[in-house]
């Protein structure tokens, strides 16, 4: 094949600029730390990265939802503890009123305290989290329980998404912790109703021990609500671990798909640099040689 | 040995002086683009027995200049036209796909995909705090950002369309002026008298043809009188010294009406639509007629899916004031989608609750947030759009770089065949110089002999 000056120059320019292009590519890879910067760089790796990015953003939201569920359950746990404490106090007062050594004034004082406990329990059960009464379901009512035990909330589940498929129920229904409202026989009703009935009986000089069985049932109710809350708290912890593990593996996979292997990149850069230097060195010698140097 | 020998030596002097001229022309144009090196074609005169008696000088040996020819490889010239046209077409398609992909700029943390996820997250937050206003305001904000992102992608695609249309206009203008130039050179070549050297004009015409091939995929057919006809597809755009002007028209097309565009066609002679274009122009035309409109319509599909999915669920909900949910998004396409005016005016109108469940219910908002997992949802459509755009771009990139490589090889070979090698010219220069010197020596030798003949002969006894 015939070689002319123009074709020689053109070929040199083309080779040198292709090497420069490769050096620039390595430079960008190293500077950004990313091997894949747009969909067309490596479509299958980029598609994976796209999915991984989405998954990470979803995990962010799930973990926020989970934090919210956790604080909701912690609050419910505290409130149920308070209710339990108040019930123990009420039970002690009932036993005290039946001891037979108390005068009418003392009995009235006990009845008054029990009414106070009923109000306290109603108050605790109306505890809100950012304005949302935690035992009121989803109802619009700001205080679902009144001191007489009338419930104006609903039993709808409050749900938090914690994964693509799982929605955790975070609320305990009002009647699950307080017992069911009974309009006809208040003595078989919820905590507030029973405590009001107890107070009335004590005021009227009747024995309070007839209500002890119901009070114990109500205490069982509170304990089983606490057990449910505890189980859900453990569930939340499980989801927290799962999210942390998933995040780690997704991040690792994303990094494998799109991140630069620095060592390899640097070695390749070095190799490209060597051939670049060699090629411009050779070009300089070849292009400057001419028969003119040898003609007299 | 006679006077005829003198004339043959003179023909040698003239021929080599001519060669020197041509060598100097070649050396001067060693770096001129499109120049093809020239050669003086010499033929030896054959002596004939009759000539000796008839006294015709030309028949008694010596050298004749047949002409000055360009050295080029016709096969490589034709291959170069075809391969550079292919490379230019793929290159322009690749560049336009790269632009489309640049508009979406995925994967990123600030593109449409991220805005989708922010919207679902904001719905989740509203579901977590259905009766709280700040979360609703944040939701309206996220939704507005998503509609803006979609609108930006739409207008980004449309800007590319406008730019590509302008490129087509400019390219067609260039094609027309190149055709004029070729026709003018054809005219000059056809009318030149026999002795004129048209080589440099022909080089100019070759350059114009190469450029035309890159732009349109033009082919050439040679005529006997040295002129050429230029074809694009099956229409001829230059015939001898006539040209047929190209123009750009727009016509309504049912396929493009939904995205508000018209089909762009290249017409020849004002009325005939050109069907088989090549080169850059073909790349640009397919870009404005298919690649960009299809990107626009896919994006509209994404927006429409988002509007219908979210609105369908939202309509089953109840807002903070107990009213049934209206539309969440209004509009029909990526360009027109926006958050509904009622919700923009008052975020209380976001229907997060299922009817009758109270203001603290977030079931509907939770349901909308779950759309993120829908396999047929808007963001799945968007994902497959952006992935398939990436695949198309990367396959064009591979094809284009392979074709460019091939075209570069052909071009290199073509250039090697036609351009000047200085070393070669220098060696020729030395040889020509020597031949010139030798011819001069012959002249002086004959001169001396004639001197002997004229002045010394017959002087016996003088």
In brief:
The complex is a heterodimer of chains A (296) and B (462). Chain A is mostly helical.
Task: Give the SSE layout.
The complex is a heterodimer of chains A (296) and B (462).
Chain A: H1 5-32, H2 43-97, H3 104-125, E1 128-129, E2 132-133, E3 159-161, E4 167-169, H4 174-178, H5 191-203, H6 212-258, H7 262-288
Antiparallel strand pairs in A: 1-2, 3-4
Helix pairs in contact in A: 1-7, 2-3, 2-5, 2-6, 3-5
Chain B: H1 3-28, E1 38-44, H2 49-54, E2 63-70, H3 74-104, H4 112-128, H5 133-191, H6 199-216, E3 219-222, E4 228-232, E5 235-239, E6 242-243, E7 246-251, E8 263-268, E9 272-273, H7 279-314, E10 329-330, E11 338-339, H8 341-345, H9 363-369, H10 378-418, H11 422-456
Antiparallel strand pairs in B: 1-2, 3-4, 4-5, 5-6, 7-8, 8-9, 10-11
Helix pairs in contact in B: 1-11, 3-5, 3-6, 3-7, 3-10, 4-5, 4-9, 5-6, 5-7, 6-7, 7-9, 7-10
Describe the protein.
The complex is a heterodimer of chains A (296) and B (462). Chain A is mainly alpha-helical and 296 residues long. Chain A has two domains: 52-254, f41 fragment of flagellin, N-terminal domain (Up-down Bundle), CATH 1.20.1330; 261-296. Chain A contains seven helices and four strands, in the order H-H-H-E-E-E-E-H-H-H-H. Chain A has helices spanning 5-32, 43-97, 104-125, 174-178, 191-203, 212-258, 262-288; strands at 128-129, 132-133, 159-161, 167-169. Chain A has a two-stranded antiparallel ribbon. In chain A, strand 3 and strand 4 (167-169) form a beta hairpin. In chain A, helix 1 (5-32) runs antiparallel to helix 7 (262-288), helix 2 runs antiparallel to helix 3 and helix 3 (104-125) runs antiparallel to helix 5. With 462 residues, chain B is an alpha+beta fold. Chain B has two domains: 3-71 and 421-455; 79-411, no CATH class. Helix content of chain B is 61%, strand content 11%. Chain B has eleven helices and eleven strands. Chain B has helices spanning 3-28, 49-54, 74-104, 112-128, 133-191, 199-216, 279-314, 341-345, 363-369, 378-418, 422-456; strands at residues 38-44, 63-70, 219-222, 228-232, 235-239, 242-243, 246-251, 263-268, 272-273, 329-330, 338-339. In chain B, strand 10 and strand 11 (338-339) form a beta hairpin. Chain B is rod-shaped and about 155 Å long. At the A-B interface, helix 1, helix 2 and strand 3 of A face helix 3, helix 4, helix 9, helix 10 and helix 11 of B.
């Amino acid at each position: 094949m015939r070689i002319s000056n123009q074709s020689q120059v053109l070929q040199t320019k083309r080779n040198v600029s292709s090497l420069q292009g490769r050096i620039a590519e390595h430079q960008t890879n190293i500077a950004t730390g990313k091997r894949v910067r747009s969909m067309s760089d490596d479509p299958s790796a980029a598609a994976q990265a796209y999915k991984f990015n989405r998954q990470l953003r979803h995990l962010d939201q799930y973990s926020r939802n989970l934090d919210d569920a956790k604080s909701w359950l912690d609050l419910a746990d505290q409130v149920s503890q308070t209710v339990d404490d108040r019930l123990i106090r009420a039970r002690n007062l009932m036993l005290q009123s039946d001891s037979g050594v108390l005068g009418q004034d003392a009995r009235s004082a006990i009845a008054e305290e029990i009414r106070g406990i009923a109000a306290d329990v109603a108050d605790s059960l109306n505890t809100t989290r950012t304005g949302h009464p935690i035992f009121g379901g989803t109802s619009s009512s700001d205080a679902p329980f009144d001191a007489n035990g009338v419930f104006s909330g609903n039993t709808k589940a409050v749900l938090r998404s914690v994964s693509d498929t799982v929605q955790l129920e975070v609320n305990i229904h009002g009647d699950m912790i307080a017992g069911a409202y009974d309009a006809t026989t208040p003595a078989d009703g919820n905590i507030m109703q029973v405590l009001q009935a107890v107070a009335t009986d004590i005021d009227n000089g009747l024995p309070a021990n007839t209500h002890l069985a119901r009070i114990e049932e109500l205490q069982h109710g509170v304990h089983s609500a606490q057990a449910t809350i505890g189980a859900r708290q453990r569930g939340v912890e499980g989801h927290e671990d799962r999210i942390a593990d998933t995040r780690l593996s997704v991040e690792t996979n994303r990094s494998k798909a799109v991140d630069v292997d620095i060592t390899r990149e640097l070695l390749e850069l070095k190799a490209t640099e060597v051939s670049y230097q060699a090629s411009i060195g050779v070009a300089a010698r070849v292009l400057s040689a001419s028969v003119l140097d040898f003609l007299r | 040995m006679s006077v005829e020998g003198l004339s043959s030596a003179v023909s040698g002097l003239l021929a080599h002086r001519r060669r020197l001229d041509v060598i100097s022309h070649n050396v001067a144009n060693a770096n001129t683009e499109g120049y093809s090196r020239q050669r003086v074609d010499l033929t030896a005169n054959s002596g004939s027995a009759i000539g000796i008696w008839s006294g015709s000088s030309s028949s008694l040996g010596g050298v004749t200049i047949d002409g000055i020819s360009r050295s080029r490889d016709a096969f490589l010239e034709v291959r170069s036209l075809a391969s550079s046209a292919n490379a230019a077409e793929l290159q322009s398609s690749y560049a336009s796909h790269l632009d489309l992909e640049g508009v979406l700029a995925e994967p990123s943390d600030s593109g449409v995909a991220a805005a989708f996820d922010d919207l679902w997250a904001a719905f989740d937050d509203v579901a977590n705090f259905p009766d709280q206003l700040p979360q609703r305001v944040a939701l309206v904000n996220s939704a507005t950002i998503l509609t803006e992102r979609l609108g930006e992608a739409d207008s980004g695609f449309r800007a590319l369309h406008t730019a590509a249309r302008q490129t087509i206009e400019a390219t067609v203008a260039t094609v027309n002026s190149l055709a004029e130039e070729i026709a003018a050179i054809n005219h000059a070549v056809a009318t030149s008298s026999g002795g004129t050297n048209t080589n440099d004009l022909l080089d100019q015409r070759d350059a114009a043809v190469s450029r035309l091939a890159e732009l349109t995929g033009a082919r050439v057919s040679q005529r006997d009188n040295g002129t050429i006809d230029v074809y694009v597809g099956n229409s001829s755009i230059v015939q001898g010294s006539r040209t047929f002007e190209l123009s750009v028209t727009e016509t309504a097309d049912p396929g493009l009406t939904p995205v508000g565009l018209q089909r762009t066609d290249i017409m020849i002679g004002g009325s005939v639509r050109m069907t088989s274009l090549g080169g850059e122009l073909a790349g640009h035309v397919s870009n404005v007629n298919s690649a960009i409109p299809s990107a626009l319509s896919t994006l509209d599909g994404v927006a429409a899916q988002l509007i219908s999915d979210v609105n369908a669920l939202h309509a089953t909900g109840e807002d903070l004031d107990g009213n049934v949910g209206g539309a969440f998004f209004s509009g029909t396409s990526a360009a027109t989608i926006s958050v509904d005016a009622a919700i923009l005016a008052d975020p209380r109108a976001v229907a997060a609750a299922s009817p009758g469940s109270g203001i603290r219910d977030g079931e509907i908002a939770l349901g909308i947030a779950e759309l993120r997992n829908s396999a047929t949802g808007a963001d799945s459509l968007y994902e497959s759009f952006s992935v398939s755009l990436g695949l198309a771009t990367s396959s064009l990139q591979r094809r284009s770089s392979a074709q460019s490589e091939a075209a570069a090889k052909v071009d290199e070979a073509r250039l090697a065949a036609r351009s000047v090698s200085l070393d070669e010219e220098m060696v020729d220069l030395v040889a020509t110089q020597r031949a010139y010197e030798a011819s001069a020596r012959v002249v002086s030798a004959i001169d001396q002999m004639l001197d002997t003949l004229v002045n010394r002969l017959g002087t016996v006894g003088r």
